[in-house]
Design a protein that fits this description.
The chain has about 650 residues and is an alpha/beta fold. Helix content is about 65%, strand content about 10%. The chain starts with 12 loop residues before the first helix and ends with a helix. About 35% of the residues are buried. The structure holds adenosine-5'-diphosphate.
Length: about 650
């Protein structure tokens, strides 16, 4: 089993990684390559003996039955070489499949355990893409080239050289002395080739992204509206040209290395053959040995010049790839990550901070769901408080929240408003535990949130973000994923399934999309998105409602809406917020928006400016202050007038249908 550990990964991991993932098959393919290499070496002796025996038989006109033994051995070697390739492929396919699965899972687990600020870092994203992007390809070829080098080429070269030295001791030393510089050269140039390919990959990523902007569905409206196709097209062309040029450069570098290796070894082989001729004439080598060695020397030209140079290059490239693994594995993880993963793996019911405080929050769910919720130990929310919180992003010297204080009580609807850049999303990131390095306190029922495990922290919130996910899965999965970690696969009992379905339909009804979803070809089993012919893509408004239904599936005590309706026009947004407020009447909710018309029904509004609360109270109270809120509200009022409503009616209709 492969486990990504904090250690130095190197070229040995080209073999060790597959071995950890599929030990039997890795040993199998290694044995297959070694036997093939030894068969090739043995072939030199067998052919020489057979030829000498045959020449002897012809010269003396006496047939020795011993020749037949060499002949049969020759046949066996040739047959093995034919079938061994296929045997090797069977093992390699098995290794690649299992390796890909296990390593991909480990990379995902690592990403899951990483500090959130690392996930926001584009360099880490690139590193992660480099590792996962061509994982299967790298795994396959790393093992192949490792075995080509260490299980085939080197044993074969050493074997043939040993046999050579058995006949004329200094001959193999000459060959060896000439080969060593080539190895050193190949190792160095391999690094350059990897870097060149890495550069090409960066261009490729950029032009692929620009291509998606030019052709993607998500950008269709803006593409037509802003008419930027020509400009982006030009950029795409530039990146594409650079990618092609860089790709050619990398390939040329790779080819140049191989060619140089082949040429040097060709010359080397010719020199050795020329040296062997006088030795044969003088009788130190028999005719059979000469022919056999010359034949294998020509084989060696390919092995040493072409295949070995490539393999050494590949090992050097893999060394660079492994450095990426070392860097990735060493990335810091959240303090509680290892603990929670271990607990998960062991299936432990770890004692939690919240234990003892849980009051079995009775939800709309039934007994089965209740049991599930109990396992999740959702604590009753009494009070949530930000007390003098100051926060800045890692690596930045600007405080985004400054001595920020705010208090929320159970069952009320709150809104956080402010202009773009005021710190609303940052506040949510702190609230949801994505960033845990802050000054001051965030208290849940009087307990500092940092003392909670990440899992506990996450159980407190159910969120719908501005860039909520659109899963290209079934409608059912899209909604039920909101139950967080609840398995609704084959292991699910019929009773629990019934409860889950009724809950899912309830959420869809509340959001007024049940009838529409039932009317789809396969009802709730219809696949959403654009992956299959059979799948259905939803409008922006419908996706939003599905995302909100997903949030309703979770009985978390706090419901967060971080401008999930920002893509809608103000009036549609306002309606959706009103509906949602109605649905979640007895739950504590936090609505985030920069449009004030949508949140005026909230019980309490916090106005954020420059990282702190500048005004707070109900809509009426804030209007009465005649301050920033009132000013903003009046400025935005035209967005909600009837004229505007008519104007936006068609847009709203298009978005919701
Ligand atoms: P809002 O949601 O109110 O529009 P944000 O919370 O997204 O505002 O951003 C507040 C400030 O924090 C902005 O100046 C933004 O540039 C900065 N910011 C947001 N994310 C990061 C980050 N990952 N690293 C550094 N600064 C950030």
């Amino acid at each position: 089993m492969f486990v990504l550990k904090k250690r130095k990964y190197n070229w040995l991991d080209m073999w060790l990684m597959p071995f950890r993932c599929a030990p039997v098959s890795t040993v199998g393919v290694t044995a297959q390559k070694l036997i093939t290499a030894l068969a090739n070496v043995f072939q030199v002796i067998v052919v020489a003996e057979f030829l000498d025996g045959a020449i002897q038989a012809v010269a003396s006109r006496h047939f020795d039955s011993g020749i037949m033994v060499w002949f049969v051995l020759m046949l066996l070697i040739v047959s093995w070489k034919r079938i061994s390739y296929h045997v090797g492929n069977l093992f390699t396919d098995h290794v690649t499949m299992h390796g890909n699965e296990q390593i991909a899972m480990e990379l995902t687990r690592k990403r899951d355990r990483m500090e959130y600020y690392l996930l926001e870092d584009p360099k880490i994203e690139e590193l992660s893409n480099r590792l996962s992007g061509k994982l299967e390809y790298n795994l396959h070829w790393n093992l192949q080239w490792f075995l080509n080098l260490f299980a085939i080429n080197i044993p074969r070269i050493v074997g043939v050289l040993l046999i050579m030295s058995g006949y004329v001791w200094w001959l193999s030393l000459v060959v060896l002395a000439l080969t060593v510089p080539l190895f050193i050269f190949s190792l160095k140039s391999g690094k350059k080739v990897y870097q060149a390919f890495e550069e090409a990959a960066a261009y490729e990523r950029r032009h692929k992204y620009l291509f998606s902007v030019l052709t993607g569905r998500e950008t269709t409206e803006e593409r037509s509206l802003f008419g930027y196709t020509g400009q982006v097209n030009e950029q795409w062309h530039q990146q594409f040209e650079c990618a092609v040029k860089q790709d050619i450069k990398s390939e040329m570098l790779f080819m140049g290395n191989s060619l140089r290796g082949t040429t040097i070894n060709g010359v080397l082989s010719a020199v050795v053959v020329l040296i062997m001729i006088p030795l044969t004439v003088s009788g130190r080598l028999t005719a059979g040995v000469f022919i056999s060695l010359v034949t294998s020397m020509y084989d060696l030209i390919d092995i040493m010049g072409n295949s070995t140079a490539k393999a050494v290059n590949r090992v050097a490239m893999a060394q660079e790839y492994m450095k990426d693994f070392t860097t990735f594995a060493a990335l810091p993880e959240r303090e509680d990550a290892t603990e929670s993963v271990d607990a998960d793996a062991a299936g432990n019911d770890r004692p939690t901070v919240m234990e003892g405080q849980v009051q079995g929050r009775e939800t709309a769910g039934t007994a089965a769901m209740g049991e599930y919720q109990k396992q999740r130990r959702i604590p009753e929310l009494k009070e949530l408080e930000f007390r003098h919180v100051t926060f800045r992003y890692p690596g930045s010297d600007v405080d985004i929240l400054k001595d920020f204080s705010m208090k929320l009580e159970n069952g009320r609807h709150y809104a956080i408003v402010g202009e773009n850049g005021a710190g609303k999303t940052t506040l949510i990131k702190l609230l949801t535990g994505l960033y845990r390095e802050y000054e001051g306190e965030i208290l849940y029922n009087g307990m500092e949130m940092r003392s909670f495990s990440r899992e506990e922290w996450f159980r407190i919130f159910s969120c719908v973000f501005q860039d909520f996910a659109r899963y290209y899965l079934s409608v059912e999965e899209n909604i039920c994923l909101g139950m967080g970690g609840m398995d609704f696969g084959e292991a699910e009992s019929p009773e629990r399934k019934r409860e889950r379905i009724s809950r899912m339909e309830g959420a869809a009804k509340q959001l007024d999309i049940h009838d529409y979803l039932c009317g789809l070809k396969h009802g709730y089993e219809t696949r959403l998105g654009k992956l299959d012919e059979d799948s259905v893509d939803l409008s922006g408004g419908q996706w939003q409602r599905v995302a909100m239904a997903r949030a309703l599936m979770n009985d978390a005590p706090l419901l967060l809406l971080d401008e999930p309706t920002a893509a809608l026009d103000p009036i549609s947004e306002s309606r959706l917020y009103e509906e949602f407020g109605e649905i979640s009447r007895n739950r504590t909710t936090i609505f985030i928006s920069h449009r004030l018309g949508s949140i005026r029904l909230a019980d309490h509004i916090f106005l954020l400016k420059d990282g702190c609360v500048r005004e707070q109270g109900s809509h009426e109270e804030l209007m009465g202050l005649h301050g920033i809120y009132a000013n903003m509200y009046e400025t935005q009022q035209s967005w909600y007038t009837e004229d505007k409503a008519e104007e936006t009616e068609s847009i709203a209709a298009a978005a919701m249908v």
